[in-house]
């Protein structure tokens, strides 16, 4: 599991995750995600390169979204593959952390 | 004629990566659709992490059994931890907002959704969780 952060216009950050968001993957990004929460308020998490996600990966994402929200920010998810999206929807995560398949729509949502 | 595959792993979270690799390999050997391989991968990760994290150290080894028939994949996960029937565990209530979201408790819900059927029995001091996955 790799994580890269890109700064887009107007204070929007795009976090690109690559690999398996299983227990080991979640452990690997827990710390960098905590660092990110401290300084970023408009966060798009790009899941296009995430091949697998289980409940511990969801935990990392929900904890980050909670932390960002508590500081007045927004986090959304971008382009999960169909299997990963089904994991998110089954878990009810899509109703609390919006999922987008279009970058412009994701940018508009975190900038609201 | 069903083809059967077995893997025994120690009850340790570090074994989950090996299980993931095994699932990918048997997906190729048994010619399973990608969707089924993903579902198996997910259900093993959730079931095993529950056994390992909540088994109180009583589960020493976990045995995984996968058999493929024409239209179905059958899985048995056997462990010697305390008796626990995940098929009757309550699902967490859905959260309305990020602030309310409860962390955890999702694993069994994911197994219930991604497997076609789920059943449990206790044989002596062994938990047996049986899952099936319909093909096609």
What does this structure look like?
The complex is a heterodimer of chains A (112) and B (136). In chain A, 46% of the residues lie in helices and 31% in strands. In chain A, strand 2, helix 1 and strand 3 form a beta-alpha-beta unit. In chain A, helix 1 runs parallel beside helix 2. A 5-stranded mixed sheet of chain A has the order 1-2-3-4-5, with helices on both faces. Chain A is of the alpha/beta class and 112 residues long. With 136 residues, chain B is of the alpha+beta class. Chain B has a single domain, classed as Histidine kinase-like ATPase, C-terminal domain (Heat Shock Protein 90, 2-Layer Sandwich). Chain B contains 3 helices and 5 strands, in the order E-H-H-E-E-H-E-E. Chain B has a 5-stranded antiparallel sheet, with helices on one face. In chain B, helix 2 packs antiparallel against helix 3. The longest helix of chain B is centred in the N-terminal third of the chain and has 21 residues. Chain B is globular and about 45 Å long. Chains A and B meet through helix 2 and helix 3 of A and helix 1, helix 2 and helix 3 of B.
Quick structural summary:
By secondary structure, chain A is α/β, with parallel strands linked by helices. Chain A has helices at 23-39, 55-70, 82-90, 103-111; strands spanning 2-7, 12-21, 42-53, 74-78, 99-100.
Main sheet record of chain A: 5 strands, mixed
Outline type of chain A: globular
The poorly predicted ranges of chain B are: none
Q: How many helices of chain B in DSSP terms?
A: 3
Spatial strand arrangement across the major sheet of chain B: 1-2-3-5-4
N to C succession of SSEs of chain A: EEHEHEHEH
Roughly what is the average pLDDT of chain A, rounded to an integer? Answer: 95
Q: CA-to-CA gap between the ends of chain B?
A: 18 Å
In CATH, the topology of chain B is named Heat Shock Protein 90
> What fraction, in percent, of the residue positions of chain B are helical?
25-40%
What portion of the residues of chain A fall into strands of 2 or more residues?
Answer: 25-35%
What structural class do the secondary elements of chain B suggest? alpha+beta
Distance between the termini of chain A: 30 Å
């Amino acid at each position: 599991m790799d994580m890269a952060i890109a700064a887009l216009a107007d204070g929007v950050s795009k976090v690109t995750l690559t690999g398996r968001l299983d227990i080991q993957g979640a452990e690997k990004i827990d710390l960098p995600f905590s660092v990110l929460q401290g300084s970023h308020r408009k966060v798009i998490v790009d899941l296009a390169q995430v091949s697998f996600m289980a409940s511990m990966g969801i935990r990392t994402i929900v904890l980050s979204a909670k932390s960002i929200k508590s500081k007045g920010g927004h986090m959304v998810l971008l382009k999960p593959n169909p299997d990963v999206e089904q994991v998110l929807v089954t878990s009810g995560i899509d109703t609390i952390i919006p999922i987008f398949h279009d970058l412009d729509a994701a940018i508009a949502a975190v900038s609201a | 004629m069903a083809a059967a595959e077995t893997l025994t792993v120690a009850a340790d979270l570090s074994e989950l990566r090996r299980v993931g690799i095994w699932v990918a390999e048997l997906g190729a050997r048994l010619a399973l659709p990608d969707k089924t391989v993903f579902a198996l991968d997910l259900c093993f990760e959730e079931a095993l992490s529950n056994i390992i994290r909540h088994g109180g150290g009583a589960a020493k080894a976990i045995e995984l059994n996968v058999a493929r028939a024409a239209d179905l994949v059958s899985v048995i996960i056997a462990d010697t931890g305390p008796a626990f029937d995940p098929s009757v565990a309550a699902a967490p209530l859905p959260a309305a907002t990020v602030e309310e979201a409860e962390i955890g408790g999702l694993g069994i819900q994911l197994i219930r959704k991604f497997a076609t059927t789920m059943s449990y029995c206790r044989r002596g001091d062994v938990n047996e969780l049986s899952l099936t996955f319909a093909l096609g």
